[in-house]
Each structure stands twice: as structure tokens, then as C-alpha cells.
Specification:
0% helix, single chain, mainly beta, four-stranded antiparallel β-sheet, globular
Amino acid sequence: AGQGGGEVQVRTDKVGAVGKAISHWDSQGHWLSYKLQVPAEGDYLLVLRYCTPGGVQREVQVDDAPPLKQGFAGTGGFSGDTSDWAHAVVRDAKGKWLVLHLTAGEHTVKMTNLDGKGMNLDYVALMPAKK
């Protein structure tokens, strides 16, 4: 939905990507925002499909909630020659999966590059949380 502090590239050439992927998210302070549609009020997990050669740090914020610092482990590369994609669930401050109680309708997810290291994104998704 938006970005600031940099300019990503939308790519169709990343091995193993589901449709289009984002690359060049590699400047400290560069933020991306997504609008996600929630079909019904309930509890959800926020899942990212990403790739990066080494570990990176991002901040993730949903709507107006306080942002959470997230570490994403290295996956081996940027999916240039082989599929390096991995899934990660956003975690709370204690390291447990963050369960979001969301109302039906549109919600905003904003993610900010904290360390100036590159990370590609294939998609951002909500998954129903099981209790």
C-alpha cells in the first residue's frame, strides 16, 4: 500500500516465489505498509514468506498497536538461483507467536528495516489462530 525511505523493486524472476515478490528492501529506516482484508472478526497470526542470506532485524506494527522488533533468520540467499524462501510468524515481546484479535475489514501492517540489511518478501498473510 505504501513505502518510505527507499524504493523496493517488484519482481517476477525470483525462484519459487508465489506470483510477484519484493526485493531491494535494504536501507535502514525503509518502511513498507500493506492493507490486509480480514474476512471475519477473530484471532489471527501474521505470517511472512521471506528470504535473506543472513539474519535481519525488522519492526512490525499492526494498525496503531505498539511496534514489535523482529529477528528473521537467514535462509541462504535472495532466491536468485534456488528457492531460499521461509515462513515466519510475527512474535510478541516474549518470543511467542503474536495472536492478533482483529475485527472484520481492512487492517494495516507496517514493517520497517532496522539494520540496513536486505530481505525479500514474497507475501504477507493472516492465518486463523487455533486456541
